[in-house]
Amino acid sequence: MASDVPMTPELEQIDGEIQDIFRALQNGFQKMDKIKDSNRQAKQLEELTGKMKECKRLIKEFDRILKDEESRNTPEVNKQLNDRKQYMIKELNSYVTLRKTYQSSLGNNKRVELFDMGAGSSEPTAEDNIQMASAMSNQQLIDSGRNQMDQTDEAIARSKMVVAQTVEVGSQTAATLTQQTEQMKRIGNELDSVHFSLKKASKLVKEIGRQVATDKCIMGLLALIVFGVIAIIVVKIVNPHNKSIPDIPGMAPPAQNFQTNRRLLSTRSFRGL
Questions:
Q1: What are the CA-CA distances from residue 48 to residues 150, 186, 228, 249 (Å)?
Q2: Which of 144, 129, 155, 6 is nearest to 74 (CA)?
Q3: Can you give the residue range of the structural domain that contains 251?
Q4: pTM of the full structure
Q5: DSSP per residue over 106-129, as a string?
Q6: How many domains are contained in the chain?
Q7: Do 234 and 240 contact (CB within 8 A), yes or no?
Q8: 196-228 core/surface letters (b: 16 or more CB in 10 A; e: else)
Q9: Within a domain: 234
Q10: Which residues contact 190 (CB under 8 A, 6 or more apart)?
Q11: pLDDT averaged over the chain?
Q12: Which tens digits make up the pLDDT trace of 240-260?
C-alpha cells in the first residue's frame, strides 16, 4: 500500500521506517521456510520479534504526532492519516499471527512478549489487548479480566477522590470569592464616604477663603482710617496754626474759650472773698 496521504516530514520519516521494517519482516519470514535447524529458526524468530517491537514503537510515535497535529489538519487529512495508522496496525498484526504460527511449530509454548511495557511506557492500546488475548487460554483471559476490573475499580476510586477534592477546592474558592465581594463592597462604601467628605471640605475651604478675604478688606479700611487719623494728629501737633486742617475734638480747645473760662474763675473767686 503506497502512501499518498499528505504528511509532515516527521510523519513521512516514521512512515518510511515502518515500511522498511515491514519489508524486512516479509523477507525474514520467507527465509524461515528455508531454515531447517530449529535453533536457527528460533534465533531468526527472535530477531523478527525485535523488529516487530520496533515497528510497534514507531506506530505509537506516529499516533502521538498525529494527535498533536490533529487540530491543524483538515478532517479529511485526519481521516486519511488515521486510515494509514490502521493499515500499519493490521499489517503488524498479520506478522504477529505469522510469528505465533512459527512459534507453535517450534514447540515453544512460552509466549514471547511482543509488546514489552517497560518503566515509563504508556498503557496498552485496544489493538495490543486484542493481540495479547489471541494467545491466552481461558483461565488467563479470566484472570486478565479480573485484573482489568480491579484496575478499573481503582481508577474509579481515584476519580472519586479527585472529584471530592475538586468539590472541596470549589467550595473554598466560592467562600473566598464571597468574602472578597463583601470586602469590595465595604471599600466602595468607604470611598463614597471619602468622596463626600472631600466635597464638604472643599465647600468649607471656599467659605473660609471668602470670609478671610472680607476680613482683610475690613482690616485694610480700618488701617487706612487709623493711619489717616494719626497723620492728622501729627500734622496738627507740628503745625497747630494750620487752618486748612480742622481741629480734632478734645485735642486743642479754642484759645478764646480758654480765656473766658479763666475770667469766670477769677470773678467767682473774688466774690467768694
A1: 34, 76, 129, 142
A2: 6
A3: 209-272
A4: 0.39
A5: TT--SPP-SS---TTPPPP-HHHH
A6: 2
A7: no
A8: eeeeeeeeeeeeeeeeeeeeeeeeeeeeeeeee
A9: yes
A10: none
A11: 77
A12: 666 666 655 555 555 555 455
